[in-house]
Design goal:
527 residues; mainly beta; 3 domains; 8-stranded antiparallel sheet; globular; binds copper (II) ion
Length: 527
């Protein structure tokens, strides 16, 4: 096939600008290569979805063995975040009217056009080199030749979790089973595409009594032995080229199973069957192979560079936060972990109403709890963990120099009122201390230079106490710039109160005005 197509490529290169066939400067080596071909007499691309990493150098070869001319135009997500599949550009094509033919049906300069193959004549091919967008999201690609769009469209997912699964689709079923049924005999409730290439239970519309069949293609980089794994609650089974490789069937709690397959390099069909009876539900899919370590292929769990013992990392959706309520090390029995997709994490201790720790990188590894192995305390999965003072964060003191009360001596005065999630799943913690109500809203801040965590505290009270203090840190503290350097690892900046060092602690007296007080805190990792 390759040798047959080569002459066409050579022919074509004479007609097209040189850079269309020879890599432009800096693209001699690329991060990802994708080949998309039209299907003969089917008005379709053979690759309907694939994923690339943000800012990756991409070489996309577009082949047209069909008898009609086609193009491939990559569009921005637009207002519908890719939901319109690029139809906005098609609407612009229709408006071209008579100019359509001379412009090769391409509305040049349309704000949603990122890259275009140009019209590729029958039996020809072309190559486009581009840098993937920096912003994660769903980028549709379309053929703008009149009448083709409805069938000729696909989705490029830009994702940090780009993976080798393409054309991933699902069929979703309702039913009550104690083992995987023969799904081929059942009628799916709905079907869809997972452009991210990640297996997930997200499309389900109920919590119990459902099943999925996922089908896609996986690109094996070399000939060799590959290990596939599923972990699921309840049963799952994984097929490669229609042969069972992992059998993890039956009703059970989250449980892993593995299998091996000797495979040739290239695209192999991957299929995962899954069912959920009742209770909790989960699905993890991963693989490893010649020359690469275990890679997660499912959402809500990342390979994390071999971070966790099982790689079942809990991770937030892009732009959101994940909440983990369980036993977390150094945070007491009522810990609430918050992991922002920006790679900033914290644990809130709902016993002492304090931030127990903050850290960067991966959030939490759910494996220990999911496996039911050990009821122990789970440590943060990431790095640069900074512990904040144990004991209550707010206290009333007789004088500014008084010792801070010991941990949990006054917890009867503290009441946790839960948390609210905003649209981005970011929590605001609400709690009370005596007759003071507190709203505590952390938020990640990412910048070019460094990432940090900011926190807004809103206090209100009818009988505003005059001797309430907030303790931000303890240890070796020095005033530096406008903030405080704590234990050489953390820089704290406080607004809305006069912070001072007392008894090896960074304390802020709370001053109420008209029954309210506001405090802003920025936590920054010291270099
Ligand atoms: Cu077309």
């Amino acid at each position: 096939m390759k040798s047959r197509l080569l002459p066409y490529a050579v022919l074509l290169s004479a007609a097209l600008p040189l850079q269309a066939q020879n890599p432009p400067k800096g693209f001699e080596k690329v991060d990802q290569e994708i080949v998309i071909s039209t299907l003969q007499a089917a008005m379709k691309y053979d690759v309907r979805s694939f994923s690339v990493k943000p800012n990756a150098k991409v070489k996309l070869t577009f082949k047209n063995p069909d008898d009609l001319p086609h193009n491939l135009i990559i569009c921005t997500p637009g207002k519908s975040k890719g939901g319109d599949k690029g139809k906005e550009v098609i609407d612009a094509v229709l408006k071209l009217g008579e100019k359509g033919v001379e412009q090769n049906w391409e509305p040049r300069g349309h704000p949603r056009i990122l890259h275009s193959s140009g019209m590729v004549q029958p039996k020809k091919e072309t190559v486009i080199w581009f840098r993937a967008p920096k912003k994660e999201g769903n980028y549709p690609y379309i053929c703008t030749f009149p009448g083709h769009f409805e069938l000729m469209n696909g989705m490029m997912a830009v994702s940090k979790r780009a993976n080798p699964v393409t054309n991933l689709t699902y069929k979703f079923y309702h039913g009550s089973w104690t083992a995987l049924p023969d799904f081929s005999k059942l009628e799916p409730k709905k079907t869809g595409t997972l452009a991210s290439g990640l297996f997930e239970l997200g499309p389900r519309d109920r919590g119990d009594g459902f099943g999925f069949v996922f089908t896609g293609e996986i690109e094996c980089p070399k000939d060799g032995v590959y290990t596939f794994e599923t972990a699921s609650d309840d049963g799952s089974r994984l097929y490669i080229d229609d042969k069972v490789v992992v059998n993890n069937d039956g009703v059970h709690a989250h449980k892993g199973a593995q299998g091996k397959a000797k495979l040739k390099a290239g695209k192999r069909k991957i299929e995962v069957h899954y069912f959920e009876g009742g209770g909790e539900e989960s699905l993890y899919v991963g693989w490893s192979g010649p020359g690469f370590k275990k890679q997660s292929l499912s959402k809500g769990a990342s390979a994390g560079g071999g971070g966790g013992p099982s790689g079942m990392l809990i991770a937030a959706e892009e732009g959101e936060a994940a909440i983990y309520r369980n036993f977390i090390a150094d945070a007491g029995p009522r810990a609430i972990g918050v992991g922002y997709s920006e790679g900033i994490n914290l644990t809130f201790d709902a016993n002492n109403m304090r931030f127990a720790q903050i850290w960067q990188g991966d959030f939490m590894d759910g494996a220990r709890h999911w496996n039911g192995r050990g009821q122990g305390f789970q440590p943060p999965a990431g790095e640069a963990v900074i512990k904040l003072p144990a004991g209550t964060a707010f206290a009333t003191l007789e004088s500014a120099t008084s010792a801070w009360p010991k941990a949990e001596t006054r917890t009867t005065e503290l009441r946790f009122r839960g948390y609210q999630l905003d649209k981005q799943q970011h929590p605001t913690f609400r709690y009370e201390r005596g007759d003071v109500s507190i709203e505590d809203t952390p938020a990640p801040v990412t910048g070019e230079e460094s990432s940090h965590l900011k926190r807004a505290l809103r206090l209100s009270s009818k009988a505003a106490p005059g001797n309430l203090y907030f303790r931000a840190a303890s240890g070796n503290i020095a005033a530096e710039g406008g903030g405080f350097l704590v234990n050489d690892e953390l820089i704290i900046t406080i607004t809305g109160g006069k912070a001072g060092i007392q008894n090896g602690e960074l304390r802020v007296p709370i001053e109420f005005k008209n029954g309210t007080a506001q405090l802003g805190i920025i936590y920054q990792w010291a270099e």
